[in-house]
Structure formats: C-alpha cells, structure tokens
Design goal:
Bound molecules: adenosine-5'-diphosphate, magnesium ion
Number of helices: 17
Number of domains: 3
Distance between the termini: 32 Å
CATH class of the largest domain: Alpha Beta
CATH topology of the largest domain: Rossmann fold
Number of strands: 14
C-alpha cells in the first residue's frame, strides 16, 4: 500500500521539532544539549551536541536513520567526521542534491556535535529520523555508564533481573513447569548449556568445523497455543543462566509509538545489547510480522526489515539471545522464520502431564484421581488448568464460608462436580 507523501514547510517543522525534541531535552539525565533551531533563508538548521560517542554508537546512529529514511548515503567520512546525505527523491541527481537532508557528525574527545540541515519542505520520515537520532543520542550518550534497564523500560519493555528476583524470594526453575520433559531437554541443549558452558561448545566446534564458527544460538522461536508456558519458560531460562530477561510485548511497541515503531524496535535491540548477556523475549511476534504479501502497510514492512536486520546483521557479536514467541507460526514471514536457528514447539499437555500440572495446583488429590481428572481436562493448556483449579477453590471456599465449616482442601469429588457444571470449564484462550 502506497503511503501518502506528506511534507511540512519549515515553519511547521520548527514548531514540531521544538515541541518534540524539547520534551526529550528536558527529560532528566538527557545526554544531549537542547537543540538550536535556526531558519536561514529557505533552510532549516538544527545543531546539538551529545556526550562523547565512539564508532559503534555512530553505527547505531546510522541504523536509526536507516530505519526511517529510504535513500541515504555517506557523503564524506574521515577521522572524527562523518556526513550523510538523504535526497528527498530517489536517485542522486545533482538537482535534488541541494534539497537533501544533510546530517554531519563531528567527534571531539569529550562530545559529538551534530548538525542537521534541510532546504525547503520536510517529509514525515525525515522528521522522524531527526527525532529518533536526537532521542537515541540523548538517551545513550553515556552508554558505558548508563543502565540499559532505564532505557528499555521507557521503550515499554519489562526487565527481569533473576538475581533480584531470587533475593525477593522468587524461586524460578524448571520445576515450575510440570511435564514438558522433551521441551526442557531441547531448551537445555540449545540455550542453557551453551550459555553456561561455552568453552565445551566452542572446543567441540573447533574439532568439527573447517572454519571457526560458534554454535551458540542467537535466535530461537517458541511456538505453541496461549497458556502452554512459553513466557514462563523464558523466565526459567533467565533464572537458570542468571542473565536478565528483557520482555517485549510486541503489540505495545506497535501501538505505543505510532509511526516510530521501527526506531523503537531498533532501540530495544541496541539497548539490550548493552547488557553483557541477555535474553530478549519478543512476545506475540506474529502481531508485527504478518506475511509480506498480506498488503502490509509501509510502516509494518519497515518494522519487519529492521527486525530481519537486527536478527542477522552485526548483532552476531553481541551477547543477546532473541526468543520470539508465537501461536501462529504459519503467519510468520518466511524471511523472518529463516532467521531463527531453531523452533521449539510447546504442545498442549498430554494426560500424564496434566496430572503433573494438577500436582502443582491441587496437590491434595491422590495420583490415581489426578489421572482420572486429567482425562477430563484433555485439550486444556497449563493456564486453563490453573484457572480451573482456582475457580474450584473459590467455589469451595465460598461454600465453606456459607456453611461455616472448618477449613480443608476441596476433595477430588468436588473437582469432578465442578467439571460437570457448565461454565466452569473455562477456556480463556
Ligand atoms: N506445564 C505447566 N506447569 C505448571 N504451570 C503451567 C504450565 N503451563 C502453564 N502453566 C501456568 O500457566 C501460566 C501461563 O503460562 P505462560 O507461560 O504465560 O504461557 P504462554 O506464554 O505460552 O501463553 C503460567 O504462569 C503457569 O501458572
Ligand atoms: Mg506468554
């Protein structure tokens, strides 16, 4: 679908920049100076300085610009200086060159000066590019000392620190997920052991591979119906390996910053890579990556291309392992699917597993009876089973209150009785 080409005149641009950039510039701990915006004849000039930056950050600046601008090129590069040019119309015809958006970075030992200029009107992507660049530099200026958690939280992610959770008394381990033996084994093999014992995996690789290549996974797909334990499993991996889990509900990245989602996604990856090691969990990845031939909007296509680049590109050298979760693998773009080293399928629990799950939520029931109950609950996910047990408990407790009976756990027969009552067999998926 063709996106409407909208341009803004320089007065409108100035007003928007002042408002948007002003909000960031005044945020606490901004690492960039408040931009100076000057209108000179037909040209708008924006100048600001960020803290000291190094080559890697400069590359990330290019990534940010690349996520908004279609055509750009480096027009000049030398030690401490880089200039980019993005013509508003494709092609590098000299006659459009004059109207190009120009961005110049001058690196000093303690700061970086950024000078942006543009003649004539400005398009929304150009505006977003400048806005994104400013936001990135003001948040990342001090990346060596900055806590990535702060940035990620601002972007709508949640960061679980397993060490902090353990201190709070939250015990997360494989035992939290009943059953799923073969899934656990696959996860140990693909994520946990390579992270915990990299030397063994690397040395085996040295003996087998003609050319050096690591066999540590970079991207794994968790596939399965809602409520089968995908998110819980990501938390377990984080706890087992003692590395932070960055939880990103993709839907919120899509809706929270309308029109800026691709920049946000790029920033989520960049900020996560500031951790020496972390798990980046992209939940409901299908909401962002519908098939390309579905007549996807331009914005979504841009987002997908950022994701594809981030999953292979120079991410390889960072300690980020991406886990994508989906219950609609068939809807994923094939290019995206190919970026995952492995797909791990979480099936619905079988009868034996349901009996084990029941042991976690109805431990008073005898094994034999749990198996009988499990037969009745076939087709439910772990979450459905937990919810069913919760509802039985609420009903039982209410009856205890009403009848003024002493406290005791609901008996097996009560679970069966509840199952027969229509409406209690809640399936919330
Ligand atoms: N195998 C299981 N054993 C114990 N609890 C489970 C199991 N599977 C799911 N649950 C329960 O269901 C809840 C939801 O699971 P979740 O990890 O959010 O599923 P998903 O991410 O696949 O939708 C968990 O918090 C847990 O209480
Ligand atoms: Mg989930």
């Amino acid at each position: 679908m063709e996106q409407e080409k909208k341009t803004l005149d320089i007065l409108q641009v100035k007003e928007i920049l002042l408002k948007q950039i002003g909000t960031i510039a005044h945020e606490e701990r901004s690492n960039a100076t408040i931009p100076e915006i000057v209108l000179s004849q037909e040209e708008i000039q924006i100048t600001f300085a960020s803290g000291k930056i190094h080559g890697e950050i400069l590359l990330q600046c290019i990534e940010i610009l690349n996520s908004s601008l279609e055509n750009w090129r480096i027009s000049s590069i030398e030690t401490g200086y880089m200039a980019l040019q993005a013509p508003s119309i494709s092609g590098y015809d000299a006659k459009y060159g004059l109207d190009s958006l120009r961005i110049r970075f001058t690196l000093y030992p303690s700061k970086c000066n950024v000078f942006v200029s543009k003649r004539g009107e400005m398009s929304t992507p150009e505006l977003l590019a400048i806005f994104g660049l400013y936001r990135f530099l003001s948040s990342l200026g001090n990346s060596e000392t900055k806590n990535p958690t702060d940035i990620l939280v601002k972007l709508g992610a949640t960061v679980y620190d397993p060490i902090e959770e353990e201190l709070k008394g939250e015990k997360m381990g494989f035992e939290r997920i009943a059953g799923y033996k073969s899934v656990k084994r696959e996860i140990e093999e693909t994520i946990i052991y390579p992270l915990k014992h990299p030397e063994v995996f690397d040395n085996v690789s040295l003996l087998t591979k003609k050319y050096v290549s690591k066999n540590k996974p970079r991207a794994i797909l968790f596939e399965g119906s809602p409520g089968v334990g995908k998110t819980t499993m990501a938390k377990v991996v984080s706890a087992e390996c003692k590395i932070p889990l960055v939880y990103v509900p993709v839907e919120s990245i899509l809706s929270k910053y309308y029109g800026e989602s691709s920049q946000n996604l790029a920033m989520v990856f960049d900020s996560a890579s500031l951790f020496p090691n972390c798990l980046l969990f992209l939940d409901e990845i299908d909401s962002l990556a519908g098939r390309r031939d579905d007549g996807m909007f331009d914005a979504n296509r841009k987002l997908l291309s950022v994701l594809l680049r981030k999953l292979d590109g120079f991410e390889a050298k960072t300690g980020t392992i991406t886990i994508g979760a989906t219950n609609r693998k068939g809807d994923l773009d094939s290019a995206l699917l190919s970026r995952f080293d492995k797909s791990i399928y979480f099936p619905l629990p079988n009868q034996e597993e349901i009996a084990e799950i029941l042991h976690a939520y109805a431990l008073q029931i005898e094994m034999e009876d749990r198996k009988t109950l499990a037969q009745e609950l076939l087709g439910m996910s772990g979450r459905n089973i937990r919810d069913f047990c919760d509802s039985v408990e609420r009903r039982w407790s209410t009856e205890l209150v009403i009848s003024n009976h002493p406290i005791q756990a609901p008996p097996f027969s009560f679970y069966l009785e509840c199952l027969k009552i229509r409406g209690l067999k809640i399936i919330d998926s």
